[in-house]
Amino acid sequence: MTDDCAIALSGVTLALGNATFAFDCRLPAGAITAVTGPSGSGKTTFLNLVAGFERPDAGTVSIGGQDVTALHPAERPVSLVFQDNNLFAHLDIASNIGLGIDPSLRLSAQDRAAVSTALERVGLGGFEKRRPGTLSGGERQRAAFARALVRRRPVLLLDEPFAALDPDLRAAMSALLVELHRETGNTVLIVTHDPQEVRRSADHVLFLKQGRIAVNLPAERFLSGTGVAEADTFMRQI
Ligand SMILES: Nc1ncnc2c1ncn2[C@@H]1O[C@H](COP(=O)(O)OP(=O)(O)OP(=O)(O)O)[C@@H](O)[C@H]1O
């Protein structure tokens, strides 16, 4: 495990409408961190700050020791799977995933093989020529996950990536995430409402409350009780 991809937010503050956020934390490199907490607590905003879709009013965001606060999302070493999976309707699934490798879609035979392998791993083998509009919501989410996989960036950001899937498929996709994480050793942040997901996949847990960090602990310690009532109630929902 290297320290290259630790994510650090130092003195970060942000106001969006009536909501205010203040984040100060350091997240371990090469780990899966679950970002959780009640609806409206700031989970997506936290991910947006790391991805660069939001800029802090004050403070710095760094990834792997590099200050990325002023960098655009495309310049940051991250790949993303957000709730709206951002597939291009006019491109087939293979091209949508190929965009993760090369935005101009000049793909080598090896790249095309990587696309097909990623599709097979997410259970969409043979979907290469299909258009996004012909896929179910869950299949589109899995295609977006495949696109993030082929990018092979050191940091993977996932915002409720499996929320639309039924429980069995959700469990299978979490298992796939853990398996791929073991292979690549990348740093993963996954926003989830699902305590089972936290238990299944997280090495580390960040629990947010009203735009602040209420708990920042290794998963083992989080699961054995945090002393923060909301976090402990959340885990008892299983
Ligand atoms: N651009 C914005 N303008 C005004 N308010 C915003 C904006 N973005 C987020 N907020 C508010 O900030 C709060 C946190 O939003 P955020 O989406 O980060 O929460 P969340 O924890 O991801 O919620 P959920 O679990 O419901 O998706 C919410 O109250 C939201 O209404």
Automatic annotation (TrEMBL):
GO MF entry, a single one: ATP binding
Domain ABC transporter: 2-235
This protein's UniProt keywords: ATP-binding, Cell inner membrane, Cell membrane, Membrane, Nucleotide-binding, Translocase, Transport
Domain of life: Bacteria
Pfam families: ABC_tran
Family the entry assigns: Belongs to the ABC transporter superfamily.
Protein name, as recorded: Thiamine transport system ATP-binding protein
The organism of origin for this protein: Allorhizobium borbori
